Amino acid sequence: MIEPGTDSVRTRNLARILGQVHLEGPRSRAALTLATGLNRSTIADLVAELCARGLVTETAPDPSRRVGRPSPIVAADPRIVAIAANPEVDAVTIAAVGLDQSIAARLRIERTELVSPEETAALVAETIAHWRDAALSAHRIVGVGVAVPGLVRARDGLVRTAPHLEWHDAPIRELVADATGLPTAVDNDATLGAIAEHLYGAARGLEHVVYLNGGASGIGGGLIVHGMPVRGVSGYAGEFGQNRPGIAATTDQQAPEGVLEDEVSRARLLRTLGLTGVDDPTLAAALAASGDPAVAAETDRQRRVLATALANAVNVLNPRAIVLGGFLAMLAEGAADQLTGLVRSQSMPANAEDVDIRAAVLADDRLLIGAAEAAFAGLLADPLSQLRDRPDPEATR
Question: Can you give the pTM of this predicted structure?
């Protein structure tokens, strides 16, 4: 007879084990015992069930590296994937992200015209159908996460406005779910980037973080306070790109009455370089290789304007770190000390004394990993919830 509450306790314990290997990487059974406080036999039983369900793998450690009885190594199975999509003004990027954060497949679909919500859903569905017969033939897809450069209503995933995409009240979650037949999560791209960098990247382990993402659509932001994402009452927090920084030098102002993302702009960098429609690695390489004084002058100008905006964030939020992603990271590349100095010179000294400005370490994968994290949320909360219709391998032996 099963006692009341047994199933829920087991579900929570399975989630704890899966969450450990998802967030921390491969762990020995001994480490899992220490981290969870569960006894060794319970850990062995829970790991066995997760293995049988295809959620984790278990391997023997290298016996030459340990003294005494070796403890098996448990890892998230990379064949469990979420599909991540990031529609932008110049391209739609789609990737299959493993439960271990590996990228199993990736596609950038360049666009000369703005993509609609319906076209986005169709592109995601077509890509999944192709990958099921090719790159993902040995994988299981548990859901879709969409990172949108716009205001996403938290309670239902409705895109209230993505101005650069010209989306307004777009039901992208329903469109993608209907097109793919998969559970779908939608959030602001910078919010997801902040979560990804906090869990796995430059802000890992930090409690107070400001994240700014620079993309083709402009500048978005995310906040981590006391180790938790801050979304605001409806999910719209972090729109740093819409702030109006005070620009001390009139010669630095290029967009009178404009907001931050009008002044600090990927499009302006591309025009100065004479480029169109390139991805971030290509843009970064072009900036690094350029010896054109006009390019140097524009990056310096944007760096000065950005510093003022960051100083405002430091004064208001007193973060431990500011993490810059996308083209904003390129502005800090090779000039981190200069940027930090500019920020501190415009901040209250006490607020700025502990702040550290860092580039996003997940680079081009940050938004995709963040979107996948949203798609994995249901599975991580209840590891068997999305897999109950899958036969238990042990039952068929």
Answer: 0.91
